[in-house]
């Protein structure tokens, strides 16, 4: 018995994004690939969603390209950060990727890294007075500008609380104050509190705002650099039934922040593509090792050297576009 073969037949095709497939891409890397490149990375805290996204993205991109990588968390401990870096020196890595928790002074260990012939990439936090080869991160100045512009449009006159993340939150504040300060000078805005939120912890933001509200509940706006700080501030507002009545900014597009925007208790957040940050960092590491040219946005002097800087702009999310951005968040 013979079966005829049809001239035409159909089959269903489904397209899937490559980064959604769980495939060991290193099997497909060309023999000479990048298997001899070793990257060591130190990130601030494993309890923060953004850093876990960056870690996963870096490891995945490194696996795709056949690169050896080890990512460690220092959990806001400068001594542990230094210990990890010294361990990487002994391992003779090729590139150190560092989101340092101490950006000024006390970076002597980076001189040791440089003297060992290891390339240094500062990721997401600019490092001063050190032999850094490259900075890659989000445009923190732009982020602050977006927050400041948003606040002053929503509340052109009123009483503000300014919250600054510490450490490393200066650039956000500088950008925001470009819009806020002129209105302070003209008397339209009064800053009733200007405080640092240590370690960016929501409980510290909560205590600051609670203390302000205990003395004076007449608050119109809160500049919160990130969503976790916004969450702490909003918790304090809720205790005084002021949620939704005070305009609060944020950043990171965390699920809790998106929920608060939908509920009307947080006015905006900023979407930073942490997956893209991790992927770009691996690509830039390869370019540094191979001596290839790098397309950069700025050359920034850190007090010691001019640092090639590659910046990613954040995207503003508020009640007007939040539903359109949900799919983008889910893809991350």
UniProtKB/TrEMBL annotation:
<dbReference type="GO" id="GO:0030288">
    <property type="term" value="C:outer membrane-bounded periplasmic space"/>
</dbReference>
<dbReference type="Pfam" id="PF13407">
    <property type="entry name" value="Peripla_BP_4"/>
</dbReference>
<protein>
    <submittedName>
        <fullName>Substrate-binding domain-containing protein</fullName>
    </submittedName>
</protein>
<feature type="domain" description="Periplasmic binding protein">
    <location>
        <begin position="51"/>
        <end position="292"/>
    </location>
</feature>
<dbReference type="InterPro" id="IPR025997">
    <property type="entry name" value="SBP_2_dom"/>
</dbReference>
<keyword id="KW-0732">Signal</keyword>
<dbReference type="GO" id="GO:0030246">
    <property type="term" value="F:carbohydrate binding"/>
</dbReference>
<dbReference type="InterPro" id="IPR028082">
    <property type="entry name" value="Peripla_BP_I"/>
</dbReference>
<dbReference type="InterPro" id="IPR050555">
    <property type="entry name" value="Bact_Solute-Bind_Prot2"/>
</dbReference>
């Amino acid at each position: 018995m013979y079966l005829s073969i049809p001239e035409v037949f159909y089959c269903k095709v489904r397209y899937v994004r490559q980064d959604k497939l769980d495939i060991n891409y290193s099997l497909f890397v060309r023999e000479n690939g990048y298997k001899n490149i070793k990257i060591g990375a130190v990130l601030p805290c494993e309890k923060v969603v953004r850093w876990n996204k960056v870690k996963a993205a870096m490891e995945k991109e490194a696996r795709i390209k056949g690169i050896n990588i080890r990512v460690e968390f220092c959990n806001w401990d400068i001594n542990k950060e230094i210990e990890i870096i010294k361990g990487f020196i002994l391992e003779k890595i090729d590139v150190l990727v560092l989101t340092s928790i101490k950006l000024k002074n006390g970076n002597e260990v980076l001189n040791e890294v440089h003297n060992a012939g290891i390339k240094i990439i500062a990721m997401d936090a600019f490092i001063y007075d050190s032999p850094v080869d490259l900075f890659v991160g989000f445009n923190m100045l732009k982020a602050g500008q977006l927050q400041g512009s948003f606040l002053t449009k929503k509340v052109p006159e009123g009483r503000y609380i300014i919250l600054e993340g510490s450490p490393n939150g200066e650039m956000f504040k500088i950008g925001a104050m470009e819009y806020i300060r002129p209105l302070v000078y003209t008397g339209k805005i009064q800053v009733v509190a200007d405080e640092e939120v240590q370690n960016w912890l929501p409980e510290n933001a909560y205590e600051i705002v609670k203390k302000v509200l205990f003395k004076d509940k007449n608050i119109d706006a809160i500049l919160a650099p990130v969503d976790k700080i916004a969450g702490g501030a909003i918790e304090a507002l809720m205790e005084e039934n002021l949620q939704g009545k005070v305009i609060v900014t944020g950043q990171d597009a965390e699920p809790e922040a998106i929920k608060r925007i939908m509920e009307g208790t947080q006015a905006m957040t900023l979407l930073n593509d942490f997956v893209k940050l991790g992927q770009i960092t691996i690509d830039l590491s390869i370019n540094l090792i191979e001596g290839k040219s790098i397309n950069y946005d700025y050359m920034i002097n850190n007090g010691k050297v001019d640092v090639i800087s590659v910046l990613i702009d954040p995207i503003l999310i508020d009640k007007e576009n939040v539903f359109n951005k949900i799919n983008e968040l889910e893809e991350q």
